[in-house]
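hey so u asked for the seq, here:
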Amino acid sequence: MPSPSKIIIRIRNLSAVRSGQTVLEGVSADIHAGDIVAVIGPNGSGKTTLLKCILGVLPYSGNVTIFNKKPAQALRDVGYVPQRFSFDKHFPLTVGEFLRLSVDNEKLINNALQEVEMRAHAGRPLGKLSGGQLQRVLIARAIMNNPKLLLLDEPTAGVEQAGEKDFYEIIKHQNKVHNATIIMVSHEVNVVYAHATQVLCLNKNLCCMGKPKEALTKEVLEQLYGKDAVIREHEHH
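ran it, structure tokens below
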């Protein structure tokens, strides 16, 4: 596994404005190789905006580098799963055909589908998949080129609750076996304790960053979610 001391993303004084509103302000952070970083915060706190600034698809002030490069120059080593994926469910496009739009290599496609346990569905229409199956296909698309960095925007959104555990196992597999550094936006603080090695807390500003048990103090959680926030640590089995 890559040395945890190696910084692969540097964010310095990052600010972003969307629709005339400041969404992020003065955010600075380092992301280290091999970490699973959970980005948490209330609605409107800038979580999705942070991911899109890292990808370089939204304008921002400040500085972001990935592998010591500008975001646009590093994208071949980055996989991304969006929070929402809109398409015409009646369009006759199979899972395999959808993935071929990104990569024309059957071995890479089959390997990626195998990784997310969807190879048997390669010939199935995309519009016939469940929410969880579609998310698996989107992860397959993101990992086909074996990215060093994987960005996931609420990866379990639309996933049936029974399938969430398997979903996080897929993410951990990418981290442990394929050495991918993971940044995932989450709205479930309890999940952070079970699956993340680092947590980045946003509420337009950076409220905290560190190991979940150390960073998620009562004061920080109140700053994020208000004084009525009740957070129970996820049980470890």
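Residues 7-225 form a domain with the Rossmann fold fold (CATH 3.40.50.300). The beta strands are 7-18, 21-32, 36-40, 61-66, 78-81, 149-153, 181-185, 198-203, 205-210.
lmk if thats what u needed
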